[in-house]
Specification:
The chain has seven helices and no strands. With about 140 residues, it is mainly alpha-helical. The N terminus is likely disordered.
C-alpha cells in the first residue's frame, strides 16, 4: 500500500531531529533503534527523510522528552499531531505532560495488542479517546470565549 505524501519540510525536520537526538545522546543508529524497539533500517530511513509512522513518532517523542531534549521532542510532537490529523484541533502549546499521558496509553495499547490482550488494548484506547475528547472540549470552549 502506498504511503500518503507528507510535507517534505516536516520530513526534513524530523530527519534532522532524529540525527541530532541520536548524536546528542551519544548513540549509534543501532543503539537508538534498540532503545526505541525499532529496526536499524527504520532509524536509517528516518534520518534520510522518510516519515515515521505515528507509533514511531510517539516513541521518538517520549525518548526525547525523557532525556530533556525539548527541541527534538517538539519536532516529533508536531509531526505526530500532523500524522494523526489533530494539529488543527489542539493548541500546540499544551503541556507536554498531557501528551505524554496520551502517548503512554497508546504505547500500552500497542503492547497489549502485541500480547493479543484485546480487552486491555480496548481499555487503553478508550482512555486515550476520553483524554483527547477532553482536550478538544477545552480548546473549543477556549476558542468560543
Amino acid at each position: 500500500m502506498a504511503r500518503p505524501k507528507q510535507n517534505p519540510t516536516n520530513l526534513t525536520d524530523v530527519g534532522r531531529a532524529v540525527i541530532s537526538l541520536r548524536r546528542e545522546c551519544g548513540l549509534s543508529q543501532q543503539a537508538l533503534s534498540n532503545n526505541l524497539h525499532l529496526s536499524l533500517g527504520s532509524v536509517t530511513r528516518y534520518e534520510l527523510g522518510r516519515s515515521p509512522d505515528a507509533p514511531s513518532l510517539a516513541r521518538l517523542f517520549r525518548f526525547a522528552s525523557d532525556r530533556g531534549k525539548s527541541e527534538q521532542a517538539e519536532v516529533f510532537r508536531k509531526a505526530l499531531f500532523e500524522v494523526l490529523g489533530i494539529e488543527s484541533i489542539l493548541d500546540m502549546n499544551k503541556p507536554a505532560v498531557q501528551l505524554q499521558q496520551v502517548l503512554s496509553h497508546v504505547d500500552e495499547a500497542r503492547l497489549a495488542l502485541e500480547r493479543y490482550d484485546a480487552a486491555s488494548a480496548r481499555d487503553r484506547l478508550r482512555h486515550v479517546q476520553k483524554v483527547l475528547a477532553q482536550m478538544v472540549t477545552m480548546e473549543t470552549t477556549k476558542a468560543s470565549k
